[in-house]
Amino acid sequence: LPVDIxxxxxxxxxxxxxxxxxxxxxxxVTAVGRALGKVTVAEWVESEATLQxxxxxxxxxxxxxxxxxxxxxxxxVAD
Length: 79
What we know:
Blueprint: E1 5-8, H1 10-13, H2 20-36, E2 39-42, H3 48-57, E3 61-62, H4 73-78
Parallel strand pairs: 1-2, 2-3
């Protein structure tokens, strides 16, 4: 199957602000994504500080509680 998106597992995202190894993984995946012309998505983004760190690293998109809590589809489209 063709690859459309490179997703960065939350295991590497949750401590990215304080763990240099996690930051190295995020930077590496982001660099590969850029080289391949693919979008990068970080999951498990739970704080504004983490989101800012990922933005600075060049991650294209994010998923997590900092952006929106899980909710039923009906509630989401009503917003």
